[in-house]
C-alpha cells in the first residue's frame, strides 16, 4: 500500500512538474531576408540580392523535458524576399536604372530543440518549414527625370510570380534566447534556405535565407 501511494505521489508530482514546464505566448520581430539566384536561372552570374528588411508576427509554445532540454514550436507570418538594383546606362546625359523587389508572403512553422545553459539563457537548433502563400515581384525602371512601374493587369505595379515559385521553403536554423523572470523574452536566429524555390526546369536555383530578432512573452509558470 505504501509503495502504491508512493508511486501515485510521484505520478501526480511528475504531472504537476510537466504542467509547469509548458509555456506559450505571442512573439513579434524584425527580419532581414535575402534571395540567392544562380547563373542557370537567368543566364547571369551567381548573385545574392540585396536584403529586404521586414517583420514577422505569430505565436510560440515551449515544452521543457527537464532543466536542460526542451522543444519549441511556432507559427509565424512574414513577408520575406529581397530587392535588387541594377545599374543602368547613361544615354544622352540621362541615367537609366532598374530596381526590383520580390516578396514571398510566408507562413513559417519553426520547430526546434533547445538547450538551457542557465534557467534564463538557451540556445536552439531546428528547421523552419515555410509555406509560401503569395509571391509578388515589383520592377521599377527609372531615370533622372521619371520612373515607370512595370505593372500587372490590375495596375498595382506588382506581378504575380506564384506559379514560378515552389510552395515549400525548408531552412535549418540556429538561435539564442534570453528570458526575464516575468516571462518576457528576446531571441535571435539565422535560417539558411536550402530548398530550391525555382519552378524553372532549366536547372536554375533560387534560395531564401533570413535572420530574425524578436521579442515575446511566455505565459505559464517558471
From TrEMBL:
Residues spanning the signal sequence: 1-19
Q: Does the keyword Heme apply?
A: no
Record's SUPFAM superfamilies? OMPA-like
Coiled coil regions in record: none
Positions of the Outer membrane protein beta-barrel domain: 18-198
- What InterPro entries does this protein map onto? Beta-barrel_OMP_2, OMP/PagP_B-barrel
Q: Locate the transmembrane regions by residue number.
A: none
Tell me which Pfam families the record gives. Answer: OMP_b-brl_2
Q: Which UniProt keywords apply?
A: Signal
**ATP-binding among keywords:** no
Name by which UniProt lists this protein: Outer membrane protein beta-barrel domain-containing protein
- Biological source species: Chryseobacterium glaciei
Amino acid at each position: 500500500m505504501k509503495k502504491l501511494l508512493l508511486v501515485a505521489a510521484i505520478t501526480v508530482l511528475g504531472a504537476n512538474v510537466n504542467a509547469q514546464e509548458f509555456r506559450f505566448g505571442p512573439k513579434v520581430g524584425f527580419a532581414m531576408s535575402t534571395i540567392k539566384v544562380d547563373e542557370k536561372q537567368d543566364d547571369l552570374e551567381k548573385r545574392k540580392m540585396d536584403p529586404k528588411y521586414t517583420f514577422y508576427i505569430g505565436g510560440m509554445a515551449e515544452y521543457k523535458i527537464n532543466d536542460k532540454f526542451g522543444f519549441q514550436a511556432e507559427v509565424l507570418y512574414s513577408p520575406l524576399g529581397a530587392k535588387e538594383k541594377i545599374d543602368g546606362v547613361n544615354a544622352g546625359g540621362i541615367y537609366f536604372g532598374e530596381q526590383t523587389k520580390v516578396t514571398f508572403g510566408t507562413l513559417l512553422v519553426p520547430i526546434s530543440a533547445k538547450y538551457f545553459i542557465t534557467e534564463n539563457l538557451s540556445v536552439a537548433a531546428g528547421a523552419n518549414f515555410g509555406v509560401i502563400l503569395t509571391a509578388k515581384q515589383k520592377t521599377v525602371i527609372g531615370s533622372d527625370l521619371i520612373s515607370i512601374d512595370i505593372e500587372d493587369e490590375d495596375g498595382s505595379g506588382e506581378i504575380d510570380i506564384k506559379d514560378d515559385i515552389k510552395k515549400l521553403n525548408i531552412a535549418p536554423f540556429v538561435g539564442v534566447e534570453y528570458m526575464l523572470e516575468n516571462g518576457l523574452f528576446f531571441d535571435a536566429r539565422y535560417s539558411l534556405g536550402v530548398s530550391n524555390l525555382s519552378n524553372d526546369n532549366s536547372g536554375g536555383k533560387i534560395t531564401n535565407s533570413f535572420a530574425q530578432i524578436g521579442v515575446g512573452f511566455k505565459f505559464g509558470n517558471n
